[in-house]
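Notes from hallway chat w/ T.B., transcribed later so I don't forget. T.B. wanted the structure written out for a chain they're using in a teaching module, and asked if we could keep both sequence and C-alpha cells in one place. Agreed to drop them here.
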Amino acid sequence: MSFASRALVAMLVSASALSSVNAAEIAVSSVTASSTFYTYNATNLINGNGLVGNLHSGNWEGKWLLDSVTTGNLTFDLGGLFKVASTTIWNYGPGCCGEGRSVQDLSISLSTDGVNYTEFGSFVLAKPETDPFGGETLALGDTTARYVRFDIKSNYGEQSYTGLSEVKFNGVTAVPEASSLAYGLIGLATAGLLMRRRSSAR
C-alpha cells in the first residue's frame, strides 16, 4: 500500500473513532450571571460545592441566586468547541429559604462565538421536594457550541429570588465537519502523490 493510501486509511479510521467516543463531562471554563445575590456566587454552579456523589446537600453556600429578581440569565463558557450531548441541572431545591426559588421555565440557547445564539429549546424543570436532591438531565442534541445560555423565565412561587444549585455538561470535543475532512483528505492525497512522483524521478 502506498504512503498516500496508508495515510488516507489512518485518517478515516481516526475520524470514525472520534465520532463514536462516548460523551464525557465537560470541564466548564467559567459562568457569568445577569445578577447575583450576596455571596450566592455563580461559580457555585460549576465547582461541585454542595454535591455529594450525585446529590446536592441543599446548603445555601453551594447555591446561586438572582439578585432581588425572579428572571435573568446565565452564560456558561465551555472553553472550546464541543458537541454538547446534555446538561444536568440541580435546581435550587429545599434547604435554605424554600424550594419556591427553584427554576420552573427555562430556555437554552447555544453559540460557537458567544455573540450569535440559537435557541435549542424550552424546558420545565422539576421542583425538588427532598433534601438532599438529585439533578435533572436534558438532552441537547450533540449541538456544536462553546457557549450555553440559560434564560430563566419563571420560578415556583418565590416573589424575590430564583436560583440553581449546580450545572454540568456532557459531550465530546467537536471534530471537523465532513466537508472540511474531505478537503483535508484530498490535500493529503495530493501531497502523497507528489512525494511518490519525486521518489520515482530520482
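Follow-up for T.B.: Residues 178-201 form the longest helix (24 residues). Might be a good example for the class.
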